[in-house]
């Protein structure tokens, strides 16, 4: 069994290309179905941040991005996608928190059974990604300390 | 049921290999997208030592180590993946059925715009999960993935349908219990072409099969138990309403009233639940109200097994889940029906109100940089009489307010006040413990890379162990390093210090952390579900990485 697993793993790795965004059905801000592959239709870069209502550093990171967003958008064209990983218990709370924190310029999505989170191999939050206009993940970071957000805009500005 | 996995695994692996080969071939024609691999690895390892002060728990090996490796491969419409877990042995307080190393999850899937099919291990839920949910929560040691098959179908954003069958995972194996279910959602507003209103009606049906033990059979249990739920979702111009009714079928609880050998070992009860969520989000205001009634809603994978990971539905505590040290001493866990001794409580009834408000920049309260306010009120009671909505004894009540203010570019302050009242007898009698907790969380950014965060906390109470205080200092060097030290003291009674120091390093998608400290016996809660942990003292090392 172990041998089969090892062969399979290396077999898959050998045909693997740069990580992209898997297609998963989650929910938009209204509760309507949202397929994550539709994020790629608009060919602009994205910051994708996974957060939850009980993850304080996640909320600090999104607030920090929200505070500087008008300045950043003067420097580059991109979108911010905030993916709440709260389950059904706190989905309504997450929607209210997004409103109460003024995250009006984000694309707010709700991954209520953590399917998108698993598909993106996110095991701890905060986890942030920068995705280029072709849908390729070019940067990612686990955890947040104040100041980490500066790296995001630098990565986006360096994209072609 | 390991034999099931053993016999199916080679078939699934062969299927995965064949599919990859087939897609690789189509790639040569330049049509299909190139595949990519995603994966993650996590280790959570603790070394324990004796601590007479807290009577700390020390396992025989002095070590505990939980390890997870997950791999997923995506190629166009095809995906496949697996998870290997190793408990060498499991950390103290984790369910004992998590042991040794095993290939625990394995799946292949295919999905296009409308159809999807999964074979192997998968997670799913119907509605809010009150009727059925399978999920993974590593903090709880929970993974009840189904091993079987699932089919999904969407029609033009109007109809979403799924049907599934499988055996839920328990510990390192898949149980003998079988679950069959279907869920359907009609988005009526999309059918009618309404732009400003989202209206959907939804329903689920679930059949659970468990071969009954002789005791269960003699208590009147049938092998199959049927449950269903109906739901309504409405959203218009920021207003929303969600309603859910669940009939969970028959539940069997240990009979505490046995007097003669002819009395049944289990008592059959009718599980049911009602959930309403309503509110408004707009103009910087987020307001939501939740009301929920539960009666005999404990859905187990295996009847009679008392493990905390033995669950097949999701009945979380609907109240604020705190993260500050002193606010988490007595977390609430929802009551899904108690039958013990002479105490009978068929469930709980209660609700919560949440308000988030953003005082915009430039307003009197908003100041130059805005102010954020959040308040929550939660209250839950036992059911005074079975089959009614009459409130009995208070189980839990919490009123909290927190205010977040960015004073200057460098300085941000969060203040929290929480008044918590809980029932130490879980509703068996009326008496409750009341505590008042205040927290100040102060963040100061010296430079764009260097910041500190200080937490000061105080808990005042006349009951139990009396007053507590706590402090935490965190020093951050962006983007990689963070160090912290904290102490929590029960100065009102025992005088015990619960100290903790730690350091973490995060680079790209890898994070290392090392911590040493003394931990209090209590609860680890995640997603509103809690598991009890014993007191321990020791050093903990974690690595999480993914690609």
CATH topology of the domain at 317-526 in chain B: Porin
* Class inferred from helices and paired strands of chain B: mainly beta
**Into which percent range does the helicity of residues of chain B fall?**
under 10%
Identify the overall geometry of chain A: globular
Percent of sequence in beta strands of chain A: 15-25%
Here the CATH topology of chain A equals Glutaredoxin
Query: Could you say which overall geometry of chain B the principal axes of the C-alpha atoms support?
Result: globular
Quaternary structure: heterodimer
Given as residue ranges, the uncertain stretches of chain A (5+ residues, pLDDT < 50) are: 9-17
Percentage of β-strand residues of chain B: over 45%
CATH superfamily membership of chain A, which one?
Answer: Glutaredoxin
Question: What radius of gyration of chain B results from the CA coordinates?
Answer: 25 Å
Count of distinct structural domains of chain A: 1
Gyration radius of chain A, in Å: 16 Å
Q: End-to-end span of chain A in angstroms? A: 45 Å
Q: Please outline the major beta sheet of chain B.
A: 24 strands, antiparallel, barrel
CATH class of the domain at 317-526 in chain B reads Mainly Beta
Q: Give the H and E element order of chain A.
A: HEEEHEHEHEEH
CATH architecture of the domain at 317-526 in chain B: Beta Barrel
Structure in words:
The complex is a heterodimer of chains A (160) and B (547). Chain A has one domain (19-157): 3-Layer(aba) Sandwich (Glutaredoxin). Chain A has helices at residues 2-14, 56-75, 91-100, 115-119, 149-157; strands at 25-27, 33-35, 46-51, 79-84, 107-110, 127-131, 137-142. In chain A, strand 4, helix 3 (91-100) and strand 5 form a beta-alpha-beta unit. By secondary structure, chain A is α/β, with parallel strands linked by helices. Chain B is mostly beta strands and 547 residues long. Helix content of chain B is 7%, strand content 58%. In chain B, the strands form five sheets. Chain B has a 24-stranded antiparallel beta barrel. Chain B starts with a helix and ends with a strand.
């Amino acid at each position: 069994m172990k041998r089969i697993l090892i062969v399979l793993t290396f077999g898959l790795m050998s045909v693997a290309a740069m990580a992209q965004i898997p297609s998963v059905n989650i929910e938009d801000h209204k509760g309507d179905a949202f397929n994550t592959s539709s994020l790629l239709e608009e060919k602009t870069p994205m910051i994708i941040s996974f957060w939850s209502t009980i993850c304080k550093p996640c909320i600090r990171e999104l607030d920090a991005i929200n505070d500087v967003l008008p300045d950043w958008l003067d420097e580059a064209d991109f979108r911010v996608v905030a993916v709440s990983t709260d389950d059904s218990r706190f989905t309504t709370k997450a929607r209210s928190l997004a409103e109460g924190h003024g995250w009006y310029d984000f694309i707010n999505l709700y991954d209520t059974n953590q399917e998108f989170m698993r598909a993106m191999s996110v095991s701890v939050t905060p986890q942030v990604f920068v995705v280029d206009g072709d849908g390729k993940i070019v940067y990612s970071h686990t955890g947040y300390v104040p100041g980490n957000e500066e790296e995001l805009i630098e990565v986006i500005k360096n994209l072609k | 049921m390991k034999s099931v996995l053993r016999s199916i695994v080679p078939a699934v692996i062969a299927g995965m290999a064949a599919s990859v080969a087939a897609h690789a071939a189509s790639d040569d024609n330049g049509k299909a997208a190139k595949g990519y691999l995603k994966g993650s690895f996590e280790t959570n390892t603790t070394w324990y030592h004796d601590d007479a002060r807290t009577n700390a728990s020390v396992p025989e090996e002095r070590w505990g180590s939980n390890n997870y490796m997950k791999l997923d491969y995506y190629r166009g419409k095809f995906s496949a993946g697996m998870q290997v877990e190793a408990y060498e042995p499991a950390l103290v307080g984790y369910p004992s059925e998590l042991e040794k190393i095993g290939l625990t999850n394995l799946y292949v899937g295919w999905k296009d715009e409308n159809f999807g099919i999964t074979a192997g291990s998968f997670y799913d839920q119907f509605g809010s999960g009150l009727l059925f949910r399978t999920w993974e929560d590593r903090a709880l040691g929970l993974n009840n993935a189904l091993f079987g098959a699932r089919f999904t179908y969407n029609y033009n954003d109007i109809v979403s349908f799924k049907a599934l069958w499988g055996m839920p995972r328990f510990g390192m194996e898949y149980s003998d219990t079988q679950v069959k279910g279907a869920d359907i959602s009609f988005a009526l507003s999309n059918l009618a072409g309404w732009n400003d209103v989202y209206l959907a009606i939804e329903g689920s049906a679930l059949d659970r099969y468990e071969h009954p033990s002789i005791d269960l059979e003699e208590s009147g249990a049938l092998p199959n138990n049927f449950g269903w739920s109906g739901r309504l979702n409405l959203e218009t111009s920021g207003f929303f309403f969600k309603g859910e009714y669940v009939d969970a079928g028959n539940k069997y609880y240990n009979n505490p009233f046995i007097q003669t050998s002819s009395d049944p070992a289990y008592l059959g009860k009718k599980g049911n639940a009602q959930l309403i969520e309503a509110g408004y989000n707009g103009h910087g205001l987020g307001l939501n109200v939740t009301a929920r009634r539960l009666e005999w809603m404990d859905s187990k994978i295996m009847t009679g097994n008392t493990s905390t990971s033995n669950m097949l539905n999701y009945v979380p505590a609907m109240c604020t889940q705190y993260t500050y040290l002193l606010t988490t001493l007595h977390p609430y866990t929802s009551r899904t029906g108690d039958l013990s001794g002479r105490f009978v409580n068929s469930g709980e009834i209660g609700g919560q109100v949440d308000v988030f408000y953003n005082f915009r920049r430039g307003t009197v309260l908003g100041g130059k940089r805005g102010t954020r306010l959040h308040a929550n009120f939660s209250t839950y009671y036992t059911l005074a009489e079975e089959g009614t909505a009459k409130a009995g004894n208070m189980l839990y009540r919490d009123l909290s307010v927190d205010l977040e203010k960015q004073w200057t570019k460098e300085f941000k302050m969060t203040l929290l006040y929480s008044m918590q009242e809980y029932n130490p007898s879980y509703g068996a009698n009326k008496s409750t413990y009341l505590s008042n907790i205040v927290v100040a969380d102060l963040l100061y950014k010296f430079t764009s890379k260097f910041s500190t965060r200080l937490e000061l906390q105080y808990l005042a109470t006349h009951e139990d162990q009396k007053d507590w205080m706590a402090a935490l200092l965190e020093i951050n060097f962006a983007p990689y390093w963070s160090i912290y030290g904290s102490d929590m003291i029960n100065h009102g009674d025992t005088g015990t210090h619960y100290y903790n120091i730690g350091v973490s390093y995060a680079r790209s998608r890898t994070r290392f952390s090392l911590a040493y400290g003394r931990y209090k016996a209590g609860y680890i809660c995640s997603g509103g579900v809690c598991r009890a942990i014993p007191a321990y003292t020791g050093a903990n090392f974690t690595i999480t990485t993914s690609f």
